[in-house]
Each structure stands twice: as C-alpha cells, then as structure tokens.
Amino acid sequence: MALNNEHIKWFRDSSPYIDAHRDRTFVICLTGDALRSANLKNIVSDCALLNSLGVRLILVFNGDSAILEALGDEWSLSGQHRITTPEQIETVTAVVGGKTHELAAMFAASSPDTPTALNKTRREVLTSSGSFVKARPIGIVDGIDFQNSGNVRKVQGDAIAAQLNNGAVVLVPPVGYSPSGEIFYLDAIQIACETACELNAEKLIFLTQHEGLLNEAGETINEVDLSHPEPALSTGTELLPFCHVACQQGVGRCHILSYDVDGALLEELFTRDGCGTQVVGHSYEQIRDATTDDVAGILRLISPLEDAGILVKRSRERLESEIDRFLVIERDGLLISCGALYPYHCSEKGGFGELACLVTHPDYRKSDRGDRLLESVEKRAREDGLSNLFVLTTQSAHWFQERGFVARDRDTLPQARQALYNDQRGSTVLVKPL
Ligand SMILES: CC(C)(COP(=O)(O)OP(=O)(O)OC[C@H]1O[C@@H](n2cnc3c(N)ncnc32)[C@H](O)[C@@H]1OP(=O)(O)O)[C@@H](O)C(=O)NCCC(=O)NCCS
After folding, report:
1. Are residue 247 and residue 348 in the same domain, yes or no?
2. Which residues lie below 8 Å from residue 326, measured CB to CB, with a gap of 6+?
3. Which of 215, 202, 287, 289 lies closest to 250, judged by CA?
4. Closest alpha carbon to 396 in 358, 347, 343, 424
5. Which of 128, 173, 181, 304 has its CA 20 to 30 A from that of 423?
6. 298-312 per-position pLDDT tens digit
7. The domain boundary residue, chosen from 246, 280, 314
8. Which residues line ligand 1 (CB under 6 A)?
9. 188-247 pLDDT tens trace
10. 427, 394 in Cβ contact below 8 A?
11. In this structure, are 171 and 222 located in the same domain?
C-alpha cells in the first residue's frame, strides 16, 4: 500500500508542538469583523481540535459589526471608545448574547472526529460562558460621558479556570458587570489581554483582518522582539501596547494572525515558522548578547561544571576573547544562563555551528531557559547562514536528542573541529539540521 509520506512527515513534525501545547492556556481574541468571516466555521473547528489536544482555550470576541447593525450610527465613537447609552446597552447585551449562543452552537456542531450522526463515539466540545469580567465605567473624559462603556476591572480567573478544568472552551463576550449591577460594553482586546495575564496564559492570539503585523512595505513581520526597538509598522499598532503588557506580566508569546486565512491558527501553532507575527518579550529576563562585563558572571556559572568535568575548561583570557560568541540570560542583575555559538564555514560540508557551554544555574533549571537559549542560538545560526548545529556532550545527550539533535560519527563534523576532538573525553557528537 502506498503511504502518504508527506502526511506522515507533517504529523511527526507536529508532535513536539502537540506535547508542548497540552495543558497550556491560550487566549484567542476575535477582533474586527472576525465573527462575519467566511472562515469562522474553520476557526471554531480548529479551536475544537486544540481543545481535544488538551489546550485550555478561552475565546474572547467582539460583536461590533452586529451591534452597529442593530444600533446604527447612533452608537457613536469618541477616540478609541464607543459611547453606549443605558438604552443601547440592552441591545448590546441582546446582540452579544445571541453571538455567544451562535458560537456555542458552532462548537457543538464541530468536532475533530467525523461529524456524522452515526458516529456515537463523537466527542462533543463543551463551551461555557458567564459573568467572568467585572467592569467599571470609563466615566467622563474631556467632558464626554461614556455612560455604559467601561473598562475591565477584574477578570475572574478562578471561575474561568474552573471551567477550563472541566474541559470546556470558555467564551467571553465583550460585556462586564459592576458590583452595583450595571452592565458595561467592553473592548474585547482589553478583555483578552487582562484574561491572559490573570490566567498566566502561555499564548495570547489576536485574529485580525491582516496576516500579522505588516511593515511599511506591507510585508508580514515574522517576529517582533519587544526587548528591541519596535519596527516601523503599517498595521497593528493598536495591538502592540497590549502585547507589551501581556509579555511583561508573564504571558509567553503573543501572536497576530489573519481570521480569513483557513488554517492560519494551526500553521502558527504547529510549525516552526508559523504564518503570522509572533511577539516575544522577556524584558523581565532578557536573552542578550554577552559583553566583557559578563565574563566574571559566566565564569561563576560554568566553573562548577568545569570542575565536575561536565564542561571543557575555559580560561578567563579565552572567554574574554570569545565573549561575542555568548548569549546570556540575566535576572535581577544575575547571569543565570549562558550558551555560545562557534561557526565553522567549511566548503565541502556547508555551514556548521557548534553550540557550546549551554548552562543554566542549578537554582533556575526546568523553566525553559535552556530551551529559550537553544532557540536563540538556532536563530542566530540561521541568520549566520549555517545549516547545521552540533554539540559535543558527555552527560546531556538526551536533553539535546529530545530537541531534535541526532547522534552522528565525529567525521560528520568539519575537519577543523574533528582535529580538536578530545579522545579522552569521548563526547557524543549530536547534530541538528537547521
Ligand atoms: C541542560 C541544561 C542547560 C538545561 O537547562 P534548563 O534551563 O533546565 O532547561 P529547560 O528548562 O529548557 O529543560 C529542563 C528539562 O531538561 C531535563 N534535563 C536537564 N538536564 C538533563 C540531562 N542532562 N539529560 C536529559 N534531560 C535533562 C530536565 O529534567 C527538564 O525536564 P522536565 O521538564 O521533563 O523535568 C541544564 O540542565 C544544565 O545547565 N546542565 C549542565 C550543563 C550541561 O550539561 N550543558 C550541556 C552541554 S553544553
């Protein structure tokens, strides 16, 4: 029987992401006209698939076009905010209530399994919605009374978590309630951001009309690193402040994708390159290039491992001369992780990069810092035009193998590196194609 090798490869390539996403919390925000997109059914279906893979999912939506249709131009805008009168809020709640039911019905009808009435094992996707957001009025700004338009006061994280623990997809409409019992229309983007922060979400995903953040030439920017100066953008500037807040409060990543492109969510979440814009920011704990000021800190980090024979000894002088090969993670002024990249451009084998000296301080291990450093070293190696990354290790082979490195003979290495191989150490050679 002929096998569909492409499908098998795709499935195998996706499996690390399936593992990585399981039990993680993702907040997805449908912005703009997403509820009217012809692709909405597919988005809901993909959300149902994520739910079946163990992702804890919260879907925040705005109902702006539907509300506008119901209220007409009388639902006025001042700056970025709508002015919602007490009479209009009744229509708003009716419209968004209807939208919540429509979404719930779409989830009920969508299933990652074959959706046939005969399929008795079909797993239904549970949804849950409720009064998860406390609100307060925007009040009077520059003489304009925003009445029943409000800001998020608090997201009831525990209540949402309880629903997620039950396996439900949580639907959050753009309304909130004040302790005095008033109802307020809220901005969905603000709700999504606050929810992601409150629940320590791994991802905050904005589905927008554009295929990510676009630069001034109209091209999608693959990644924005908030610890660097912001690139000039032609879209999405209103989203970046929320990404800043989310990343600063510990949300792992923000993503900006198109709601019109079928499969964009899956492509972004299950492939290395994704298809939209990934926004990262670890300003509280940045990965950065090392400088000569870091030599002492790196020595403190690596010396115990050198003494234990886990790493090859490096003199202070050598470290100083090679300092620009190093990346470090600093926390509260302390270096807690480091790693280095040594490139070997060799004519017969192409570009190889050696990942060396990857260390996390014992007190800070098991929090993905090794992974983040590896990711940065790989990125730097690709930027340097290298096509393979290799590492020589005596005690951490499994760590690297679990991250896509494969054991190879030492003659796979560039000649210049083979000549330096230390037979006494007998390190395992592991290679990862980039
Ligand atoms: C390997 C190392 C850099 C990982 O750092 P980290 O910041 O803890 O990395 P991560 O959080 O991304 O990974 C932690 C995971 O790796 C596992 N791990 C740690 N060391 C490992 C090893 N030697 N072999 C296999 N797995 C290992 C941990 O158990 C943890 O797995 P878990 O989440 O399933 O419990 C760190 O353990 C270290 O400094 N080791 C000593 C130096 C070394 O051997 N460097 C590699 C050679 S250059």
Report:
1. no
2. 289, 290, 294, 298, 338, 339, 340, 357
3. 202
4. 358
5. 304
6. 999 999 999 998 999
7. 280
8. 305, 310, 356-360, 365-371, 391, 393, 395-396, 398-399
9. 999 999 999 999 999 999 999 999 999 988 899 988 888 777 888 888 888 999 999 998
10. yes
11. yes
pLDDT above 80: residue 346: no
Q: How far is the CA of 361 from the centre of ligand 1 (A)?
A: 10
The protein residue whose alpha carbon is closest to atom 32 in ligand 1 is 366
* C-alpha of residue 399 to centroid of ligand 1, in Å: 6
Q: Tokens at residue 75, please? A: 């639902």
Answer yes or no: do 230 and 301 share one domain: no
Q: How far is the CA of 321 from the centre of ligand 1 (A)?
A: 27
Distance 312 CA to ligand 1 centre (A): 17
Domain containing residue 225: CATH number: 3.40.1160.10
Domain tally, the chain: 2
Q: Give the integer Cα–Cα distance in Å for 137 and 166.
A: 32
Ligand 1 atom 17 nearest Cα: 399
